[in-house]
Amino acid sequence: MTENRDLVAGTPGLKINLPVPLAFCQGCQHGSSARAIWESLEDLELEDRLIWVGGVTCGTVSAFISDVDAIGPVPHGRAPDIASAMKRVLDKDTVIITYQGDGDAVAIGTESLVQAAARAERITVIMVNNANYGTTGGQMAPTTIIGQRTTTSPGGRGSNREGFPINAAELVAGLRGTAYSARGALTSPANYNKTKKYIKKALQKQIDDIGFSFVEILSACPPNWGMAPVECLKWIDNNLVNQYPLGEFKDVDTL
Amino acid sequence: MEDMVFIDGNEAIGWGALAADCDGFFGYPITPQNNITEWFAAEFPKRNKVFVQTSSETASINWLYGGASAGKRVITSTSSPGWSLMQETLSHIGNTEVPCVIVLVQRGGPGQGTTRHGQMDYSSATVGGGHGGYRNIVLAPYSAQEAHDLVQLAFHLADKYRNAVIVLSDGIVGTTMETVELKKLEFEPLPEKDWALKGKGKREDRTRRILTSAQGAVPSLRNPSYLALQKTLSEKHQQIIKEEVRFDTYNLEDSDLVLVAYGYSARVALEAMHQAREMGLKAGMIRPITVWPFPYDPVKLQAKQGKKILVVEDSLGQMLLDVELACGDRTEMELVSCLERHEPMEGGVIFPEVVLEKMKTMIQ
Question: Lower CB count within 10 Å: N or C terminus of chain A?
């Protein structure tokens, strides 16, 4: 199966195969998210001057199966602080990315994310949004949509009890230090290609020293959503995008 | 750079960091350490060094973690409530083993406490205020000069052991102006930081480096398993205990009573010791300079010789626990604590006279 897929799409050169296979859950899209980043880094030839900061998320392991300098999992929510410090103390041509979950970035890490964007830190934050706390078994996240059932909102998230979800890409776009903010999905080849384009544009804003850049990726979490992988993709296309529209929310060349 | 200047113990931290070729400072305002942050704001950017005012102490310590992981000499400073906020990441730093320096200018606690002086963070600094059993090296200056010198030693020890080093100051040491000789201290050479992150193409072997504070599916080179990490930390702790204990002694040879005090309380205790000597009382003193590792052996030796021990510290008794560990029940031991402050509000301090009175009751 893996071999057949390689025949069609190839394996990104930056992916390291560990002696023991690391597997995500079936239908999980952290793997596809990492692939979109690997391909973007290869296209822009950034691997020699890149540091990957892994936040607290199932996908943090991608930091360690990437053939680049990496650190993680860093303290919960604080990846933008760590990335910002690296960018400030190292050579200016160093490129720093963070890979974070939605709970990591906009619950415990809200201060870190918002402050980094406001200060126009020349870093790129990639936030993978699966609308729940995946690693800990499917609890409510700040991104859980109204009506969505989780283990800590068993009756479905209600706005009177749990309040409203946070639209991170729009929030960050509203800050003046942000040069680029976009949201993509991985539900089709077309969406995958668009998401990859967003990632490359975000990295380019950092390379061009313009400001903070941010990409949110909607991502399936089949076991915690209680759906088959294909159903998850449909649920993203038909439900999740109503709360989280796809597209670019900010794209400027001066702040 | 050999000048005599008249500065306080907070500014002395800045000059000491500069002498140690520090690359970056990240900090958040909190009393009574504000002029440390302001010193770096004034002095670092014009030298093309990094100064960032962060959005919280939680942010500060994570900036420190990032700068340290990039192999740079980085420092932050804070006071007691801010110190509490830093503990989670200090634990990560303990696991990742990246070197950095944290200045803790203690104020009165618990809670918001006071914005003045205190010595109530000894335990959280020396035992490790965060989770998981790491240790910080803790250096305790008792003067502006020593603050200037110890911050240089702190950078050296941090790099030598790949460990966080705390400079444990207090509101009185930090804000008291004294004459300080600005001087770059020399230390033994250290190896290159081959582990530091900077982008794999920027090192000769063009091979990636990984730093982590988790021992799970992906092994790091230094500590490939959880047990390997525990062994590394254990060996490192033992080496630090063996090689890095520092302390000063005064009049021990013919003493009947030995004072034990650090930081501003050591200044108080020293004055009390001199007054006692003038009265013919045979008082001596041990002043720990490293409070982790604590100088157990020299304190134990005094207790073994039957000398009485008097601990002076501006808390309800935190260093006292280390002194008790050293002495056991070998001798009589007493404490002059924050209960002996001269007035009830936050300006209260322990005066030498109350220490002297306690000494008299013990040895007259």
Answer: N
